[in-house]
Backbone:
């Protein structure tokens, strides 16, 4: 594969036209490649925005399918029939009860806990990566995953008729292991953390020639996260929010939401404004937050130790870009403890009826922390990104949500249990007030 000085000579039948290094700007052919040959910087997809301005309008988007593929012209696929399993267009919930609890006026939850088909935002990136994998001729697909990505890769590969082998750390939550096995992939549980799994997968990708969605297909895969920016802008009535709070794992989701907002501004779909970007990490795996707080432009890898396994990436590939975005938008990157993560999960559930996994608990807990520190203006339109479903990480809260009241099938047994329940509630509130 050669640096694409020849790319300018190609006929552009689609808006995406090259892979471009984020560091040195070298361009490459649109193949399965994720690292620059000259400076080893990450590659991302480059688009012809003048072409998009001529062809895309709010009306053409709204006439599209009720999925991420309504934004197909902003995504790096050539197929007129991409893999569409109903992914995307998840609810943007006006969160009045949580907002009142926190003292905010305009708070929204972007709820990818109900994304299809596997209840996490990873269905977005995998749908794009799988479509591109088929276009490039791959018949076997794979990934290195902390759980959600393995679920999504296995499910969408089954739908697409592709062979699938996925790799996970061996100590993942039972729900995430089952959530991959049900689709009958080859599942490799590696004795090690995610960063060790990822290193192994890089070797496998080089030796077996498989399409790894988050390795050699990463430039295409990561573009799927832009749809979380596109949808929020559309769902807010073609306006950008003032502030977003999102979880940080590799940093890719954060940077792609930012790219999505900017692309909509670039092609004239929304008016430009400075959207503040704030990120959330668990204290037990917070290399990006540490770099932000120490005002560093590099990431020091850490060994993860947190219940928030889905965002426990000790050596985040896009961490420096997340720090850069938080700095230039006047945002923040904050951390919370495992205990605060559990409280964040419970807070979201009891105020808005949304059961999120530990990554979402981290994000809600950081939102609360930022509000209490005066770092979120109550008047701002704030959007919090919930990226996965709590049914996958039940172990995290199982011992913290109480037990059912077991009663006889008699009215007096029910009345007695109800009175006990009300008494316990009063005692809990008294403890809170004290």
Residues:
């Amino acid at each position: 594969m050669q640096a694409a000085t020849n790319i300018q000579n190609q006929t552009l039948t689609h808006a995406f036209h090259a892979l471009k290094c984020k560091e040195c700007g070298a361009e490459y052919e649109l193949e399965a490649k994720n690292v620059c040959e000259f400076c080893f910087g990450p590659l991302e997809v480059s688009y012809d925005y003048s072409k998009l301005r001529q062809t895309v309008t709010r009306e053409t988007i709204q006439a599209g399918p009720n999925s991420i593929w309504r934004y197909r012209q902003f995504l790096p696929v050539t197929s007129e029939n991409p893999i569409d399993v109903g992914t995307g267009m998840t609810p943007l919930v006006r969160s009045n009860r949580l907002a009142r609890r926190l003292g905010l006026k305009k708070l929204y939850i972007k709820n990818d806990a109900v994304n299809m088909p596997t209840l996490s935002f990873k269905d977005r990136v995998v749908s794009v990566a799988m479509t591109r994998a088929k276009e490039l001729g791959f018949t076997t697909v794979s990934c290195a995953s902390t759980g959600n990505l393995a679920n999504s890769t296995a499910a969408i590969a089954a739908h697409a008729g592709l062979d699938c082998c996925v790799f996970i750390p061996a100590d993942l939550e039972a729900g995430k292991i089952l959530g991959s096995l049900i689709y009958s992939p080859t599942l490799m549980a590696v004795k090690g953390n995610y960063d060790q799994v990822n290193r192994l997968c890089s070797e496998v990708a080089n030796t077996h020639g498989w399409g790894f969605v988050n390795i050699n297909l990463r430039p295409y895969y990561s573009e799927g996260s832009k749809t979380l920016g596109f949808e929020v802008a559309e769902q807010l009535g073609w306006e950008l929010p003032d502030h977003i709070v999102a979880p940080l794992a590799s940093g890719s989701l954060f940077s792609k939401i930012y790219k999505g907002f900017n692309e909509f501004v670039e092609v004239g779909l929304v008016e430009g404004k400075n959207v503040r970007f704030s990120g959330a990490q668990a204290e037990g795996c917070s290399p990006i937050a540490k770099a932000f707080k120490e005002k560093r432009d590099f990431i020091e890898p850490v060994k993860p130790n947190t219940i928030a396994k889905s965002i426990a990436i000790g050596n985040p590939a896009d961490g420096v870009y997340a720090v850069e975005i938080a700095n230039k938008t006047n945002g923040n990157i904050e951390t919370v403890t495992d205990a605060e993560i559990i409280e964040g999960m419970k807070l979201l559930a009891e105020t808005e009826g949304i059961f999120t996994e530990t990554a979402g608990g981290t994000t809600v807990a950081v939102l609360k922390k930022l509000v209490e520190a005066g770092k979120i203006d109550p008047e701002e339109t704030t959007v919090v990104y919930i990226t996965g479903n709590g049914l996958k990480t039940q172990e995290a809260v199982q011992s913290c949500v109480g037990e059912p009241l077991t009663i006889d099938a008699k009215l007096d047994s029910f009345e007695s249990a109800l009175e006990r329940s009300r008494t316990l509630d009063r005692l809990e509130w008294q403890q809170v007030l004290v």
